[in-house]
Every structure is written in structure tokens, then in C-alpha cells.
Known about the structure:
heterodimer, A: about 290 residues, alpha/beta, Glutathione S-transferase Yfyf (Class Pi), Chain A, domain 2, Rossmann fold, four-stranded parallel β-sheet, globular, B: about 140 residues, mainly alpha, Fumarate Reductase Iron-sulfur Protein, Chain B, domain 2
Amino acid sequence: MNLPYYPGCTLKANASHFEDSAIKALEKLNCQLQEMKDWVCCGTVFSLSNDDLMLQLSSIRNLLRAEKQGLNELIVLCSMCYNTLKRSKDFITDDKEKLEKVNNFMYMEEVDYKGTVDIYHLLTILKDRITFETIQDKVKKPLNSLKLGAFYGCLLVRPKEYAIDDFEGPTIIEDLLSALGAESLDFAYKLECCGAYQTLTQKDVSLKRSYEIIRSASRAGCEAIVTSCPLCAYNLDFLQKEIDEEQVDFNKIPIFYFTELMSIALGAGWSSKWSELHFVDPEQLLRDKHLL
Amino acid sequence: MFRGIIKNGIRNELLLKVEEISGQNVFNCYQCGNCSSGCPVVEYMDITPNQVLRLSQYGASEEILDSETIWVCSTCLQCSSRCPKGIDVARIMEAYRTINLRSGIGKINPRKIDVSAANDIPPILLVSAMRKLTG
């Protein structure tokens, strides 16, 4: 199965292990991610202002180029790209006047954007198209005895019209992890904000948010947290250095992308290059569980 | 004798602009406080999200423009998904931010960011902060 794929900026930089592990894991499921050509930044956050179409252009430009390349869908791994592209698409495509204005802006692209490309998050594809049953059948190294907390953050489940699962009680990541043989533990802060971009300007906000999320997961018994958002992963992982210095009751735990765990379970293995992109060492836990 | 708490008249120019940018009707709010109780960063705000709505209803939008609240909001959309009246509160926060940003008042001066530290920061963080906090 070929999956037309939009990577986004961070999967080519600090989160290259997210992309790499997805490619490896999907090969084991006979799926190939086919990266679209000439993509640009999606804009990372969907603009909530009604009257500024300029802020929609980066998303729509990607969708137009995908259309030009004959693609009718794009699979996205990053939660923020997924949310931004999908909401931008609806915001522009549902309104003829906006569509015309945006196309006038992008006259250099030579063809008009029509709005025919559908956006899917990889988790949805795994659930609906590949199915968790198939994934379970292909597990070579079950993640037995690994206790994991699925962290959704904001943009996989909000706004509710764009949630990839129930917006208040999602289980899609837990269901995947269970199929991989792991034990998923529910924890109270799994839909909370990690502090997002406040890390740049008001770091104390992100430090507190991330601390509370990790503490909530640890208290529920989670040995690691699993996410699909590179910004959540950065905050939850790299802020642990300062959290650890500030909080006496704190124990560091590794933060994984769901695809890294898929790669291990499906027999595509682990790469030491991925460990270098983590702050909290993920290998110790994996060794303890005999998964490396 | 005029008796009232309306500062410049309800639906003053500023509020009209907020409603235009956000597409939301602030008068739908009946002050249940769901937005503030669900807000993960409310403790860092000088006025709470429900107060943003109430001040808007009073025509006191100027106070909101000067608040820390609109910059602390991280657009996690918890308030919007919980509002029983269907108000997209995050859009109202964004509208106030946008009005400031369009008049050159931002939260980050891009020239003052330490570029040497930028190598360790993921692009997703830099771009999202720039998009939300600079004009």
C-alpha cells in the first residue's frame, strides 16, 4: 500500500527519528510512505482569525502542490501539521470567495487549488485501513510488561470536529499499543496542554505543564509516555532536565513516538541514532524489558 | 442621570473588531466559568477567560488588550471544546492578540532571540511561537 506523505519541518530535523521509525515500521506492514514533492512548512498552528487569508497560504500551497502531483490524499504524522492542514483546507474550500482570493494570491503556482486532497493522520490509517488486528498479527516482539501512557495533547482531539477519536475519551493510541502487546495505562492529564510554544517566551508555564503531565503519568504507573506531536515530545522530554533540578519528587521517564515502539514490536528494531534525539535515555528501559 | 457600568457603549469599535476577527458573539456567554476551570494555564493569567468574556460584554475591551492573559493562552482549545454555549473562546483570545499584533505590539522581538540556542530548538516551536506572538 502506497501512502502519499507530508512530513513537515520538524520530522526532517529534531524529530527525524519519528519519520525514520515510521518508514521502518510501515515497511513491515507492506506500506510505503511516499513523500510529496516541493512541500513547504504548513504554518504549524491554524490561524483563528477570520479575516486574514495570508495565514492560510502555507497550508493551502501544500495542498495545491499535492493536487498538481495527482495526489488525492496526504498522510501526516505530526499532530500539528495534521490539524493545521485539515482545518485550513475546510476553512478555504468551504467558502468560494475565500477560495478565489487564495488562488489569486498564489497565481505563481499556475494552476488553481480546488480542494480535492484529503488529510489523514497516520493513526487513523493504522486503525481504519490497516487495522489493529492486522498489526497485532504481525507483531514479532510484543512489548510485554511495558507500561505506557498515551499522551494526546491538544491537536489530535481538539477542536472536537477534528478529533481523530472521541474528543474527551480517546483510546486510539492505547488500542494501538495494546495491539503491540504493551499495557496502556490511563492517566488524568493525557489530553492536557504541554505548554506548547510558551517554552520560547514563558518557560515556567511549559515547565509546570510538562511536570504535571509527567507526574500524572508516573503516578498512574506509566514507565514511559507515547505521543505523536514533536512539540509535545520536545517539551515533555527536554524540559525534564530543568524539572528534575526543580522538583524533589520527580523521576525522569522516556518519551517515545508511537512509531518507535511500532518499529520494535514489528521486528524493524531500534536505532542508536534515535536515542541521540531523545533527552531522557530510552534504551535503559528497553533493555530492562528485553526489547533491545 | 446615567447609571451603568458601560464604559464606551456596548459594541464599541474595538468589540466590533473582535467579533469580526473571531466570528463569535460575546453576548452568548452566561458566565458559567467552564472555560476558566478547564484552562490549563489560568494560574498564570491576570484575568481569567470568563472575565475576558464579561469585560467584553461591558465594552471594556481595552483592559483585555493590555492583559497578560491573551499572551499566556496557548490555544489548546480546551475552553472552546467545553463551552456549553458553543462560543469558540480561543478565537476571542486570538482576536485580541491579533489586534495588538496588527498595531505592532507583540510578545517576541525576533531580533532578540538567542540564535546560538536556536539549533537545539525544534522548528515547530520557533515557527508556532512566531506565528502566535509576533505581528
